[in-house]
Design a protein that fits this description.
Layout: H1 9-24, H2 27-33, E1 34-38, E2 44-47, H3 51-58, E3 73-74, H4 78-82, H5 93-96, E4 104-109, E5 150-155, H6 176-185, E6 189-194, E7 197-202, E8 210-215, H7 223-237, E9 241-244, E10 246-247, H8 258-268, E11 272-276, E12 294-300, E13 304-311, E14 318-323, E15 337-342, H9 362-365, E16 374-377, E17 381-382, H10 383-388, E18 393-397, E19 405-406, E20 413-416, H11 418-430, E21 433-438, E22 442-445, E23 452-453, E24 473-476, E25 480-483, E26 497-500, H12 503-520, H13 526-534, E27 554-555, H14 564-567, H15 574-577, E28 582-583, H16 588-598, E29 624-629, E30 632-641, E31 647-654, E32 659-664, E33 667-670, E34 676-685, E35 695-703, E36 708-717
Parallel strand pairs: 4-8, 4-9, 5-8, 9-11, 11-12, 12-24, 16-18, 17-19, 18-20, 23-27, 29-36
Antiparallel strand pairs: 1-2, 3-10, 6-7, 13-14, 13-21, 13-22, 14-20, 15-21, 25-26, 28-30, 30-34, 31-33, 31-35, 32-34, 35-36
Length: 723
Amino acid sequence: MGKKTVKDHELVTKSHHETLASVLGSEDLAKGAILYSYRHGFSGFAADMNPRHAKALSKMPGVVSVFHSKKVKLHTTHSWDFLGLDVMKPTGILQESGFGVDVIVGVVDSGVWPEAESFNDKSMPAVPTRWKGICQIGENFTASNCNRKLIGARYFDQNVDPSVEDYRSPRDKDSHGTHTSSTAVGRLVYGASDDEFGSGIARGGAPMARLAVYKFYEESSSLEADIISAIDYAIYDGVDILSISAGVDNTYDYNTDGIAIAAFHAVQNGILVVASGGNSGPYPSTIINTAPWILSVGAGTIDRGFYAKIILPDNATSCQVCKMAVRTFLNVFRQATPLQHRTGSEVGLHRIASGEDGYCTEARLNGTTLRGKYVLCIASLDLDAIEKAGATGIIITDTAGLIPITGTLSLPIFVVPSACGVQLLGHRSHERSSTIYIHPPETVTGIGPAPAVATFSSRGPNPISPDILKPDIIAPGVDIIAAIPPKSHSSSSAKSFGAMSGTSMSCPHVSGVAALLKSLHPDWSPSAIKSAIMTTGIITLAAWNMDNTRDIITDSYTLSYSNPFGYGAGHINPTKAADPGLVYVTTPQDYALFCCSLGSVCKIEHSKCSSQTLAATELNYPSITISNLVGAKTVKRVVTNVGTPYSSYRAIVEEPHSVRVTVKPDILHFNSSVTKLSYEITFEAAQIVRSVGHYAFGSITWSDGVHYVRSPISVQVNDFIRA
């Protein structure tokens, strides 16, 4: 129902009852049907009703949109060192921001394990007086579980089936929320490791920031409604940053995207919303949480891996294999493990000789006993079926590193390069009974190329508004070690850590950096923080988006160069983001006008659209995308100087292939009274037929010799002008 028109929360709820009563027939029926009354950051409600009632509601005055509450998916310490945030240095963004002191980060996820050492409040000052949240008591969770670090916790279970095995409280059962929270704002924990792997100092991006947790239940039948309520309360409570590692797949408009709608109202209230982009890669147009007011995050690799060596019986041949975690914790070998396999009916390594398909599914395993053995797979695998068959572990051989996986388990999982898989298969087919030794994995850092776009990370183009580039940025999201609940929930251990992978893990990295920027620049708007992060990706004078091999960021799936549909504006660079030089500022009113330009695809406010709209290409966004270039097109951008008052910036253009780019003016002069300047950039399609219907990529960078303010350019040419 859009923005609130009255401040009194009870009056807002009463208006919801009256609105629904006009459809259901009585206020008592309305009160019984309403699950959530959204009355803090905006006005709206979630209720049980049939399609006829919903249609009648949608026609009522004051109603912006009515939509079905959809299923939402969750998306999983060296990573902070990889990003250049060194806690031991005397200066830097960490130190200058006070480690994010007193910035309040709200995490909307599966809850929190409050006893984790990452959430201790030693030496932290009193809770900011502006905080209005609560520590909601529930199952195995009391007010004493909150402290000066974990300052608030709520849970939303209005439509969770009683049979669901989870705590009816903010306490985390499945690890996801604890992991993301500690990644964003966890305190320093020395000697942290995942079963002795990746040992070091575990910490979040903003260790002195405050944490507020908003728990939803993945099993809820009204999950989207729960998350909307969580965001509504977060606005009321007073968070500065919202971190949401979840989203709805296959959403093709904004007015039925509950997270987008609630996030808009959060931005209206000065809150930056950071959300994961989804794990449906490497396929195009799978990116979610694509609204321009959301900072959408993809996942990249880091320069650390866990490697083991497989040795064949003659000790003459060995190959390095990469150990990876699949939707669960890393599991390690504490000693060399013999791997037995035989031919015939007793399948040790799942045989994938010529003529067989290599599927490790329940149907293909067909009741085979795998107890004490490893299974080798090259195609789809059902983890639950493999565990049920008693397998000791899994070896995956897959040329491109992509295998459809279902189920969860805690078995060791290795990914072998195709050459290694060929060696194993060849040995398997020639030996009737033998042993393959897998030596204990080791933690290795400094490996490259890194960062690379993770295979699972969802890709652009933006399926709802193709003229808005998504993802916005990538951040570490592969094998990230952070706090989790102890394996035995009755354990008092405060040092339990595990590795997870996903855009769920990259999202809190960006949230942590955003908290540092908010602490450094408390007057910056959400769009200013977003711009600083986007325009300062990993760049050098020689080339942009460089990885640690000094080469362009690659795609883990294709093993070739990636592009902005994979990495957005690049890989996050916290140190540069602290001092971006220039920022692109976009207001909530700009976003509303943008929605007006989309018509029925985007209804987020009750007020009717006037003749004034703002096309996606004209939105003052830190990236430029033109999905349908016919002939020539000119777009305008406005930059705000947040660096040295007296400075001049010169435009550096990297033209997309087959596109001529002209910038006017190409030099911007700022002084103490001139802090905002605009420029126009014109794109002309050249007469090269092969470019038609394909995207080409480039960039515009404004530099004063110290700052490099880079905006990626993505252009799809659908016609050309005569040369």
